[in-house]
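Box 4.2: Ligand-aware structure prediction
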Amino acid sequence: MGFEKHRDAYHALVLCLLAVWSLAPEPVDGGITSNWVRDANLSADMPLWSDVFRVPPGYNAPQQVHITQGDYVGKGVIISWITPDEPGSNTVVYWAENSMVKSRAEGIVLTYTYYNYTSGYIHHCTIERLEYDTKYYYEVGIGNTTRAFWFITPPGLGPDIPYNFGLIGDLGQTFDSNRTLTHYELNPAKGQTLLFVGDLSYADDYPFTEPQPSYSAFREASFGHGMLEIKNRTHAFFSWHRNEDEIAVEADSVWLLNRYWHSLKEPSPYKDCSLKPDLSSLVYNS
Ligand SMILES: *[C@@H]1O[C@H](CO)[C@@H](O)[C@H](O)[C@H]1NC(C)=O
Ligand SMILES: *[C@@H]1O[C@H](CO)[C@@H](O)[C@H](O)[C@H]1NC(C)=O
Ligand SMILES: *[C@@H]1O[C@H](CO)[C@@H](O)[C@H](O)[C@H]1NC(C)=O
Ligand SMILES: *[C@@H]1O[C@H](CO)[C@@H](O)[C@H](O)[C@H]1NC(C)=O
Ligand SMILES: *[C@@H]1O[C@H](CO)[C@@H](O)[C@H](O)[C@H]1NC(C)=O
């Protein structure tokens, strides 16, 4: 009788599935576009002493040099860098590729402390009134070890202006990450801006330190969702909502400040943002 009962239930399930099946749209078979299968072995992380992470040689040499969009229309760039030994110069020297005229701009320098950590000297300098679609060279570290870099400004505005975006996600910091970036750089289509969709590092091979040190920014490994509430031009609020027994629990939050409107000329743009112990920067696994 137990069997009969089960069989009835089974028939009911099959009918039910058939009903759902017949209501569903035609099954989609996207086919197979490639037989390529990546190596089953996960690629190893590049060690800290790899060439790609090397501290640049020379006294007070600028590190972590990077740029941020410096205005709304693509004619301004914020150049940021760290000097390790002394504040050094805040000057950026820059020039257009096709020009002999070198310009200079002055930025600011700041430091911060976080528990027993003291940062290097963090410089930010905004250069403005650049030409569109132009390659600029720039130098930082004037007076100590000078390093030169370049960027290309975006093309002007318009509905038929071509623009190439590179797209990369889940990069990690493995030897394969390096291969991916190398291939991107070699791509003849020449990406002008790279949109990077999250996940730069993975904790897979790095066991947690127990007990969690008080300076650690890691909060929890949970599934959930985030909310980003833009309050006004200077303030945004991010909160993390953990899935917990059917309800979403606000498990963490942080205030974010806008670097453009929260003037860089102020002594420390970090003074009430993510670097205080109770508002530490976020590391989430998803
Ligand atoms: C995976 O890595 C192990 C250890 O390095 C090696 O012995 C093995 O041959 C690798 N397998 C493949 C398919 O590359
Ligand atoms: C900071 O404190 C942590 C934990 O006590 C310790 O492991 C680390 O070496 C300290 N770092 C410095 C720069 O003193
Ligand atoms: C580093 O550069 C700064 C700013 O140009 C200068 O004041 C300082 O003397 C330099 N230090 C050395 C050791 O050259
Ligand atoms: C990363 O790739 C570059 C080429 O783009 C190469 O010069 C470098 O040695 C590579 N580094 C590592 C650690 O694989
Ligand atoms: C922007 O929002 C923050 C947070 O709500 C608030 O403290 C600040 O006063 C606001 N600024 C202005 C100009 O309204």
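In the box above, the bound molecule is 2-acetamido-2-deoxy-beta-D-glucopyranose. The two ends are 47 Å apart (CA to CA).
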